[in-house]
């Protein structure tokens, strides 16, 4: 380990790092702007300047030179000065220069109070303004409903474009103009295209890019009450910090988890949690009266009704992959194992259970996201990750850079030398192969983009697996055969190959062959990773809880003869075809629904119980990598709302169930579940239980400076109400306590003296960019499995299009395919109504164009047409999860007819405007 | 008789370009033949021995610069590039233009020999957009070379191949910085790059690349043809060869001349430029373009070479002097330069992007009677902040501070006169 001297003190530092990150890891205050732990160094802002001395004599005589900490590797024996007048004076001059054009609008700036520029300005001590000139001003742009643009505040650190273009692969944000007129924006106003644009809010060190939903419903960071949470937008399980004030969820920030999301979220995760504030939230329990409308009742009454209905009756329970393990577990106990459905539709049931089974049985490792970033050859079968598991797609954009890092290593160039590494490698990428039903958003970094029908994706996978194992493949269709060699050769040569597939293309064979490819690589001795995506935040946990033999929704409807149906946080009309749902609901006399938002399923209930949202309850979710993670209430649920587990536990106790007798706290349920469900045995390790105290005290949800607790209700009463007491977790709804050195799963917000912005995170990390000091949050439930012996699998049958029929393939959108995020402010503006994607030649044959309507199977659905030539021949895509598409089943063959009397939503396009088609493929 | 002005031997009095026939008739492309008869290693050795230093301004030894290019097996498979920096935008500098417009074949021959020495297979001439006449001439000359077999797949039957392209710059001063030039050539923002890695190992498209100035490259084939000793014999001092010197400002005969390296400043100004115009006296001069420190009368007898001028506290730079006379206000002179550099900043690093406009503004205030006493402290602080290599991402801002800091040193009374409203040149300091 190199030893270096800083201001006369010797430090041991890790080799291969730069001086800036090393200083920050040591807790030394060295200000910076352009450097970012995930994005490396470019040396633009010159803020982290220090003085370097070549010899001891130089140090004594003060004859050193200014160097940038971020651009200087730590080498043994190096001598620096951070605190000398020259270094400090230089750094002060940098801030002084940055402030020349920075407006004095901190009081009205959304960044105020968590502004890195404020922090750094105070840190360097710049105070008095000498500059007498005018400030440069810019015009701001409309960048969509999610992100606010205020260019006057820009300090030109280039972090935004480096993040947006270089890191996240966006193309529509750039540095424009030059000298002191540099402008960061789009070529013209418009919605930012990247699915990861929201990270600009956290990447920007000042208030240029701010969260528009927060700006419009504003609270300062110091007035936010926050708790560690987990995103419910998809199955990746990104760690988040939602902030609350006045009972409203104000914003979501990233919560660092070294193995999962690192520093970044997707926009569904960041902006899609606002449904918590939706007007359709249920306020109190409702009992259906004779007229069919609901009478509000209090929770005592509601519980009595529920218990009476369930008592002695045949009760079935429908759980939900978006509800916590604990709530589902209680429901399962309430209705009995045989009567508990995990709440999957039939196809989902099969696929999610298969995903779990394949991973449990695979010799390949199920990687966390950090490991995914280390992959050097990647094969994706059937997934459009950017829209189904977005954060994985962002990780893959880093994986493909491993080629660049290898080249840099050959030149002995440090990987943090961001610009140099990019200039060296240019467009050379590690190989990524994507086979999907149409073009995907990762197409720009893929070596090969292969468009196939799902059956043929499976055939491609099988052929690759066979090729790797050395089996002679059978005769393949030319569209498949041409790719097998390149893919299997690259995979065989890989050091860390990664195979990705999942449930989203709706085909079990695709997943199966993906697992076969991984297995074949493992058999040939390669360290292989296998990721199988599942749809929802707790899909995998639900499969672990209920198992493959539990009834799916369709099975429950078919078997069903129940008196009571208890439905937990699951809008069946959104999940399964309407006739099936109707049949299911008709099997029971009484339907009891626990959910947060009003929907068609709650409207079919005789009793509705308002459930707390993820932001108002604790729960354990199991992510697609099998990581059990705990989320905590950010604020106490209002009025008669209760966490689902509280409703279900109370009802179980009311019914006198023996299984509930010993359950008093949330932790008891977790423990009980872990003890009884083998696959979930590890969930108690996801977070400490409620007895945990941090150095003897609880962990505060409110920062020290949380203000106005009395004032915020002063119009009602000047007496400050007692803060809610959290008896279920080590967190407290107060400012009192210790937010330091706690386990990683219990970090409600980051703040450190002098570091008010999110950049204070490094004070909670074991080293800059490294895991949290308290350990990485979450408990992995999947280990490498033991492969079952199996011979060569029979090749899946080829796809054969039928004349006049098209196979339905689901297509996903980050905004719109997920049910709850689509109800969030801002995100809702970006969601479209359901549509189908069809090739231009097919559209021509059907005499429809972009914006026309098409009937599917004479009335199964009527949807708007979008032209997309990248869709596999013989298939049509449909906007999965969108309105009007619940009746559609992946893989189904359907006929199409032009919809008569269809009203266009947009004006008719002239022919030359047809270039607005999605995707880039040609026929 | 040995050749004493190799660079301008084909420059005609009427400044009409020398075509292929005339060029060959005067010994053209013999250097290429001489080079191809040797190994690239031998060529490099000759170049190293010749003590040729880069004529773009920094004066870095060319042979040493080239020796960092990986050769043979040490080079990973792929292209190697030679780039001619013809983006001549240094204020007061017009020497490369003369070479480009009057003798395009000389540059091309120099480049072919250089590329051969480096075993580069692609060469670019990155040329200032305003030099459209030279651009056309170079394109014609390249076409003529293809016909003659001097460029292309199999040059003069040796198997060596080279393609050459002319790229017209979009017109930013910073494109003359070699790494910014590379960024620009790649189609990116013309931002300079941090070194290391140096272009020799990771340059254009991440491949080994050499960027040299027009005048430097024009020397190469002469050296290979006539030898290192001949080249060294041309210079009057330690620095070898000849140099294109220029003089602009209020002299009787402004112009550009090829003279032995190390010709004294006084000789250049008085003998070649004809001395000051009547009624004007020399107050100071920038020896090598807008980004070099002022020197004054006391320095007139110094030899114009890299080391001598460097020791005097300035830089020889491009060797094209700008004369400051006694009737011109130094404050306005410097403000003009600093404003130019502020405008030409790429905007990448803070001291340059925000510091230069501030300096320009302070100078503007002083020049126009809005100056305050503390402005001199501000300027002194800015000079310290911006003016050192390493403080900024590239050398633009330190260069921009050179005329300012030296003006503050040599002409402090000019600033004081303005602050007190008594500038004799500027209507009492308030014009």
From TrEMBL, chain B:
Record GO terms (molecular function): 4 iron, 4 sulfur cluster binding; FMN binding; metal ion binding; NAD binding; NADH dehydrogenase (ubiquinone) activity; oxidoreductase activity; quinone binding
Keywords: 4Fe-4S, Flavoprotein, FMN, Iron, Iron-sulfur, Metal-binding, NAD, Oxidoreductase, Quinone, Translocase
Listed Gene3D superfamilies: 3.10.20.600, 6.10.250.1450, NADH-ubiquinone oxidoreductase 51kDa subunit (3.40.50.11540), NADH-ubiquinone oxidoreductase 51kDa subunit, iron-sulphur binding domain (1.20.1440.230)
Domain of life: Bacteria
Annotated EC: 7.1.1.-
InterPro entries (UniProt xref): NADH-UbQ_OxRdtase_51kDa_CS (IPR001949), NADH-UbQ_OxRdtase_suF (IPR011537), Nuo51_FMN-bd (IPR011538), Nuo51_FMN-bd_sf (IPR037225), Nuop51_4Fe4S-bd (IPR019575), Nuop51_4Fe4S-bd_sf (IPR037207), Soluble_ligand-bd (IPR019554)
Residue span(s) of domain NADH-ubiquinone oxidoreductase 51kDa subunit iron-sulphur binding: 331-376
Cofactors: [4Fe-4S] cluster; FMN
PROSITE patterns noted in UniProt: COMPLEX1_51K_2 (PS00645)
Catalytic function, reaction form: a quinone + NADH + 5 H(+)(in) = a quinol + NAD(+) + 4 H(+)(out)
Pfam family, one: NADH_4Fe-4S
Family note: Belongs to the complex I 51 kDa subunit family.
NCBIfam families in alphabetical order: nuoF_fam, PRK13596.1
Record function comment: NDH-1 shuttles electrons from NADH, via FMN and iron-sulfur (Fe-S) centers, to quinones in the respiratory chain.
Subunit structure: Composed of 13 different subunits. Subunits NuoCD, E, F, and G constitute the peripheral sector of the complex.
PANTHER family: NADH-QUINONE OXIDOREDUCTASE SUBUNIT F
Protein name: NADH-quinone oxidoreductase subunit F
Organism name: uncultured marine bacterium 463
């Amino acid at each position: 380990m190199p030893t270096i001297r800083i201001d006369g003190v010797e430090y041991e530092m890790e080799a291969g790092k730069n001086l800036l990150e090393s200083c920050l890891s040591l807790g030394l205050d060295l200000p910076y702007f352009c450097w970012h732990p995930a994005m490396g160094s470019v040396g633009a802002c010159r803020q982290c300047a220090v003085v370097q001395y070549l010899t001891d004599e130089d140090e004594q005589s003060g004859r050193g030179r200014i160097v940038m900490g971020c651009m200087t590797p730590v080498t043994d024996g190096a001598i620096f000065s951070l605190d000398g007048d020259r270094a400090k004076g230089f750094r002060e001059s940098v801030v002084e220069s940055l402030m020349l054009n920075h407006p004095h609008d901190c009081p009205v700036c959304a960044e105020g109070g968590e502004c890195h520029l404020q922090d750094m300005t105070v840190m360097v001590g710049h105070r008095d303004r000498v500059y007498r000139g005018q400030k440069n001003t810019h015009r701001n742009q409309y960048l969509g409903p999610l992100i606010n643009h205020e260019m006057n505040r820009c300090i030109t650190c280039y972090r935004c474009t480096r993040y947006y273009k270089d890191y996240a692969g966006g193309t529509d944000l750039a540095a424009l103009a030059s000298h002191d007129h540099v402008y960061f924006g789009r070529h013209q106003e418009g919605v930012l295209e990247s699915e990861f644009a929201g990270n600009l809010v956290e990447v920007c060190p000042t208030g240029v890019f701010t969260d528009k939903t927060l700006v419009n419903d504003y609270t300062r960071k110091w007035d936010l009450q926050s708790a560690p949470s987990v995103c419910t937008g998809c199955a990746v399980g990104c760690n988040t910090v939602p902030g609350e004030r006045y009972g409203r969820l104000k914003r979501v920030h990233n919560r660092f988890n070294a193995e999962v999301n690192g520093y970044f979220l997707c926009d569904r995760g960041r902006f899609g949690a606002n449904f918590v504030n939706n007007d359709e939230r249920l306020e109190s329990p409702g009992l259906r009266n004779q007229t069919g409308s609901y009478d509000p009742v209090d929770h005592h009454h509601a519980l009595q009704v529920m218990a009476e209905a369930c008592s002695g009756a045949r009760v079935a329970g429908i759980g939900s992959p978006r509800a916590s393990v604990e709530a589902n577990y209680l429901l399962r106990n309430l209705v009995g194992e045989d009567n508990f459905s995990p709440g999957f539709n039939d196809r989902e049931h099969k696929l999610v259970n298969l995903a779990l089974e394949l991973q449990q049985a695979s010799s390949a490792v199920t990687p966390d996201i950090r490991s995914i970033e280390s992959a050097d050859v990647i094969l994706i079968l059937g997934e459009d990750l950017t829209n189904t598991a977005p954060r994985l797609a962002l990780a893959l954009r880093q994986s493909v850079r491993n080629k660049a890092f290898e080249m840099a290593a050959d030149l002995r160039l440090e990987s943090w030398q961001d610009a140099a590494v990019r200039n060296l490698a240019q467009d050379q990428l590690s190989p990524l192969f994507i086979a999907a039903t149409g073009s995907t958003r990762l197409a720009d970094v893929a070596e090969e983009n292969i468009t196939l029908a799902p059956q043929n994706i499976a055939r491609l996978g099988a052929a690759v697996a066979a090729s790797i194992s050395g089996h002679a493949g059978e005769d393949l269709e030319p569209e498949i055969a041409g790719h097998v060699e390149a893919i299997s050769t690259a995979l065989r040569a890989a050091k860390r190959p990664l195979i990705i597939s999942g449930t989203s293309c709706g085909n079990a064979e695709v997943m199966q062959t993906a697992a076969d490819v991984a297995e074949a690589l493992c058999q040939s001795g390669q360290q292989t990773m296998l990721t199988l995506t599942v749809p929802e935040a707790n899909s995998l946990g639900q499969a672990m809880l209920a198992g493959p033999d539990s009834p799916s929704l369709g099975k429950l409807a078919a078997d069903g003869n129940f008196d009571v149906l208890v439905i937990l946080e699951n809008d069946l009309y959104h999940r399964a075809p309407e006739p099936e749902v109707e049949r299911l609901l008709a099997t029971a006399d009484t339907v009891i629904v626990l959910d947060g938002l009003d929907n068609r399923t709650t409207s079919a209930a005789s009793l509705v119980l308002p459930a707390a949202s993820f932001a108002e309850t604790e729960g354990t979710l199991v992510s697609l990598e099998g990581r059990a993670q705990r989320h905590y209430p950010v604020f106490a649920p209002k009025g008669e709302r209760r966490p689902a587990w509280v409703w279900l536990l109370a009802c179980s106790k009311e019914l006198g169930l023996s299984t509930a007798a010993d359950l008093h706290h949330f932790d008891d349920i977790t423990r009980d579940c872990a003890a009884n469900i083998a696959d979930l045995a590890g969930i108690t390790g996801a977070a400490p239980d409620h007895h945990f105290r941090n150095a003897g005290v609880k962990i505060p949800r409110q920062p020290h400076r949380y203000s106005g607790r009395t004032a915020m209700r002063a119009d009602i009463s000047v007496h400050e109400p007692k803060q809610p007491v959290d008896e279920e977790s080590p967190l407290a709804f107060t400012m009192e306590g210790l937010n330091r050195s706690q386990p990683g799963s219990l970090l409600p917000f980051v703040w450190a003296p002098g570091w008010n912005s999110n950049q204070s995170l490094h004070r909670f990390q074991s080293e800059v960019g490294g895991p949290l000091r308290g350990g990485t949050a979450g408990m992995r439930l999947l280990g490498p499995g033991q492969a079952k012996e199996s011979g060569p699998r029979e090749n899946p049958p080829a796809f054969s299009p039928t004349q006049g029929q098209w196979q339905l393939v689901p297509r996903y959108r980050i905004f719109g395919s997920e049910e709850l995020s689509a109800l969030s402010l801002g995100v809702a503006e970006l969601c479209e109504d359901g549509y189908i994607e069809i090739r231009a030649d097919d559209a021509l044959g059907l005499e429809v164009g972009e914006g026309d309507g098409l009937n599917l199977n004479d009335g199964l659905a009527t949807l708007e047409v979008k032209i997309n030539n990248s869709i596999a021949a013989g298939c049509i895509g449909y906007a999965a999860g969108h309105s009007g598409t619940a009746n559609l089943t992946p893989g189904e063959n359907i006929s199409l007819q032009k919809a008569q009397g269809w009203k266009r939503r947009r004006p008719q396009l002239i022919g030359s405007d047809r270039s607005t088609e999605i995707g880039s493929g040609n026929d | 008789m040995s050749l004493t002005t190799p660079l301008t031997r084909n420059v005609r009095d009427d400044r009409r370009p020398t075509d292929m026939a005339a060029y060959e008739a005067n010994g053209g492309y013999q250097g290429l033949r001489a080079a191809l008869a040797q190994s690239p290693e031998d060529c490099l050795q000759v170049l190293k021995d010749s003590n040729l230093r880069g004529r773009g301004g920094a004066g870095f030894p060319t042979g040493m610069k080239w020796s960092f290019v990986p050769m043979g097996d040490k080079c990973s498979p792929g292209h190697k590039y030679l780039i001619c920096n013809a983006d001549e935008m240094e204020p007061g500098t017009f020497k490369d233009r003369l070479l480009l417009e009057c003798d395009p074949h000389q540059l091309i021959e120099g480049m072919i020999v250089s590329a051969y020495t480096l075993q580069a297979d692609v060469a670019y001439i990155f040329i200032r957009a305003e030099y459209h006449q030279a651009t056309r001439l170079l394109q014609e000359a390249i076409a003529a070379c293809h016909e003659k077999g001097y460029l292309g797949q199999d040059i003069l039957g040796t198997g060596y191949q080279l393609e050459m392209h002319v790229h017209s710059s979009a017109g930013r001063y910073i494109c003359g910085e070699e790494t910014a030039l590379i960024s620009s050539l790649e189609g990116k923002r013309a931002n300079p790059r941090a070194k290391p890695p140096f272009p020799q190992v990771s340059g254009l498209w991440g491949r080994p690349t050499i960027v040299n100035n027009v005048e430097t490259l024009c020397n190469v084939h002469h050296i290979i043809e006539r030898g290192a000793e001949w080249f060294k014999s041309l210079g009057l001092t330690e620095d070898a060869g000849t140099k294109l010197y220029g003089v602009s400002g209020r002299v009787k005969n402004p112009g550009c001349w090829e003279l032995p390296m190390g010709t004294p400043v006084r000789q250049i100004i008085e003998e070649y430029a004809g001395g000051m115009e009547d009624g004007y006296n020399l107050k100071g001069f920038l020896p090598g373009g807008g980004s070099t420190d002022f020197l004054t009368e006391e320095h007139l007898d110094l030899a114009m070479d890299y080391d001598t001028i460097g020791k005097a506290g300035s830089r020889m730079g491009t060797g094209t002097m700008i004369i400051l006379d006694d009737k011109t206000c130094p404050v306005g002179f410097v403000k003009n330069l600093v404003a130019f550099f502020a405008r030409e900043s790429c905007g990448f690093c803070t001291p340059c992007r925000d510091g230069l406009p501030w300096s320009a503004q302070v100078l503007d205030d002083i020049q126009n009677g809005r100056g305050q006493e503390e402005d001199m402290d501000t300027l002194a602080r800015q000079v310290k902040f911006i003016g050192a290599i390493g403080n900024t991402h590239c050398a633009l801002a330190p260069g921009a501070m050179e005329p300012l800091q030296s003006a503050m040193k040599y002409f402090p009374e000019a600033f004081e006169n303005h602050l007190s409203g008594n500038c004799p040149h500027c209507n009492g300091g308030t014009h």
